[in-house]
TrEMBL record:
One of its GO terms (biological process) is Golgi organization. InterPro entries: Dymeclin. It comes from the Eukaryota. It comes from Triticum urartu. Belongs to the dymeclin family. This is Dymeclin. The keyword Lipoprotein applies.
Length: 505
């Protein structure tokens, strides 16, 4: 498979015979460069991708692709074709299955080889991706001359995610694009724990440069996916699966020769089942992961650069400006912090209207979704981000009468703090600290009486107020985790002190 045929062809009437499909993949990873205008790309993306190859051949294909990509630039070309397919999907009133197939396959093949190259990169400038394509090449006449391939790709992917609703027809493409996003942004794993000015992340840096309408629509759609938890149809078909339901050749590449995988990159489990706690949704889970990566990314700038007065960059005001880190403003974080409850989208107070697109969704639905999913660490991080950064959502939480929806899962996790990491406990305690600073909240939790607390094992909890339970759990957290939670202990005392003050009063 390492040698590219001179002219790969499909069978009669475009049918993909096993031999023809073998030739197409050999050509993709081979050393012959096919121009972006070649019919080869259309034929490749129309393949069903159902061949079964052993692990050693898959690894051979990955190595050959990475080596020959320096000359062929096939990675950049397939990414361009992916965007063209997505543009066709968004511009047409009705999308044919053939167009969906090509877009799905382009996203899937790109994910596989990008993942391999990123995991095996030897330099931190990502020159191995070879995205500097010749824009004078035939077929690229309409390619934006002022855009790089990575910007063109991120604009196309984000525009599709933000503008097209998840439906039974589009759900597979959404799934592949979210997986591709996770791969694209995993370049951060090759940097240190603290962002440095020299760090280069071509794709996520390009995402940060997108126009505000795209940013707002992406944040909104990712939140809606998390809230609505769309399901992949259990009786649906997908191009990367064979007729018997088994994974095709490229399915196997996802687990091949990973040097490190710290970012959650899920294999393609389309047949999910509902549990008693709610339906599992891979689309919802991946949407949340992508959203969290986008809103928490920080691009550090060199202090040799001037910091504009319009607030484009931010620095810590409590430290000397020469020593303080400075960051580009994150538009996705800003969009999340400015999100508004859809129930009040026509009730903006005069003078408080937002400039530009605003993310609007139902806070009630978001509140309920968080209460259902808080046992998951990523959902806790989303709640922390909202309570910490979005004043409107924080105020909404404080006026809810059913605070146990959020607090009971939090208290149960703190009760089992020995099974959690310090970071998890820190986020939970910060959430409680922020909420307990409001006197109305402190009074409300003591008015809310719980009939029972089944997970509290020390003694029978019957007709206990939510506030009393919070005090007991926080003290227990201090008692059993004092050595582990040196940084978090003061927050426990602060939260419990506020609540105990209300009890004594």
């Amino acid at each position: 498979m390492g040698v590219a045929p001179s002219t790969p062809r499909l069978g009669e009437a475009g049918a993909a015979s096993p031999g023809a499909a073998e030739q197409m993949f050999a050509a993709l990873v081979g050393d012959r460069a096919y121009p972006v205008s070649s019919e080869f790309w259309t034929q490749l993306l129309e393949l069903p991708l159902t061949q079964q190859w052993p692990r050693d051949r898959v690894l051979q294909a990955c190595h050959a692709f990475a080596q020959n990509n320096y000359h062929t630039k096939h990675l950049a070309k397939i990414l361009i074709h992916l965007v063209w397919c997505l543009q066709e999907c968004t511009s047409a009133s009705s999308v044919s299955s053939s167009v969906y197939r090509k877009a799905i396959n382009a996203a899937y093949i790109s994910s596989i080889f990008l993942k391999f190259i990123i995991e095996n990169a030897k330099a931190d400038n990502w020159q191995e991706l070879c995205l500097d394509i010749d824009k004078d090449e035939k077929g690229l006449e309409n390619f934006p001359s002022d855009q790089s391939v990575e910007y063109f790709l991120m604009k196309g992917v984000l525009n599709y995610i933000g503008s097209v609703d998840v439906s039974p027809e589009s759900c597979y493409l959404h799934h592949e694009l979210l997986n591709l996003m996770l791969v694209l942004m995993s370049t951060q794993l090759c940097s240190g724990p603290s962002p440095e000015p020299k760090d280069v992340h071509p794709f996520i840096d390009a995402a940060m440069l997108q126009d505000s309408p795209i940013v707002a629509s992406v944040v909104q759609k990712l939140l809606l996916n998390f809230v609505r938890r769309p399901q992949i149809p259990s009786n649906g078909s997908h191009p990367v699966f064979s007729d018997d339901g088994g994974p095709g050749v490229l399915q196997r590449v996802g687990s091949a020769a990973a040097n490190f995988v710290l970012l959650p990159y899920y294999t393609f489990n389309y047949f999910v089942s509902a549990s008693a706690e709610g339906a599992t949704s891979q689309l919802a889970d991946n949407s949340l992961l992508v959203l969290l990566i986008l809103i928490h990314y920080r691009k550090c700038i060199s202090m040799n650069e001037s910091i504009p007065t319009d607030g484009v960059y931010m620095s810590d005001s409590n430290t000397n400006v020469k020593d303080a880190p400075a960051f580009h403003e994150n538009p996705y974080c800003k969009a999340l912090n400015n999100a508004k409850d859809i129930q009040f989208d026509h009730a903006d107070v005069e003078g408080n209207a937002q400039n530009g697109p605003v993310v609007r969704l139902s806070f009630a639905s978001l509140f309920d979704a968080l209460g259902t999913c808080l046992k998951d660490e990523s959902s806790v991080l989303l709640l922390y981000s909202l309570v910490h950064g979005n004043c409107d959502f924080q105020e909404y939480v404080l006026v809810r009468t059913d605070l146990d929806t959020l607090l009971m899962p939090i208290l149960e996790m703190l009760y089992n703090a020995s099974r959690k990491t310090s970071n998890q406990i820190y986020m939970l305690l910060i959430i409680l600290l922020i909420l307990s600073q409001d006197s109305t909240f402190n009074a409300s939790v003591h008015k809310l009486v719980l009939p029972s607390v089944p997970w509290y094992q020390e003694r029978l909890m019957h007709q206990t107020s939510l506030g009393s339970l919070m005090v007991v759990v926080l003290i227990r957290t201090i008692k059993y985790n004092l050595s582990k939670l040196r940084v978090c202990t003061k927050f426990c005392f602060c939260c419990s002190g506020k609540l105990m003050h209300v009890t004594l009063a």
